[in-house]
Specification:
single chain; alpha/beta; two-stranded antiparallel sheet; 17% strand
Length: 143
């Protein structure tokens, strides 16, 4: 019997819902990254994009432990002198909680082309409502 190798033709993608309400941001992001890469599947192949679709709901209710809500900063730099921009976590969660979740998930993915394609299957919503009911997503419970 030969070893199974996943490729585009034999990958089945499922839809999963992750509820981030009252759960640590990092644990939710780690679970989402695992589902996006497909590492939960027995047919996982590192060089093939075999991950699933992930819908994260209640992103605004994700929590951080300790004092990170006041001490954590998101930094970007334009490349120009004096181009550093800092945003505090609690301010970012008030304005764009989806972005905080996306940055956390992207940081847990490898830096390659497959991850870029995998992140296109990530859907993040501020509240409990989402527009993917037609895909019949399953709630992911094994955390």
């Amino acid at each position: 019997m030969s070893t199974f190798m996943a490729n585009k033709g034999n990958i089945e993608r499922k839809w999963y819902i992750l509820d981030a309400a009252n759960k640590p941001l990092g644990k939710t992001a780690a679970t989402a990254a695992t589902l996006l890469r497909g590492k939960h599947k027995p047919e996982y192949t590192p060089h093939a994009d075999c991950g699933d679709f992930v819908v994260v709901i209640n992103a605004e209710k994700a929590v951080l432990t300790g004092n990170k809500a006041t001490q954590k900063y998101y930094r970007t730099h334009s490349g120009w002198v004096g181009g550093l921009k800092e945003t505090q976590y609690r301010i970012l969660m008030q304005e764009k909680p989806e972005l905080a979740m996306k940055v956390a998930i992207r940081g847990m993915m490898p830096r390659n082309i497959i991850s870029k394609d995998s992140l296109s299957r990530l859907k993040i919503y501020r509240g409990a409502e989402h527009k993917h009911a037609a895909q019949k997503p399953e709630a992911w419970t094994a955390e």
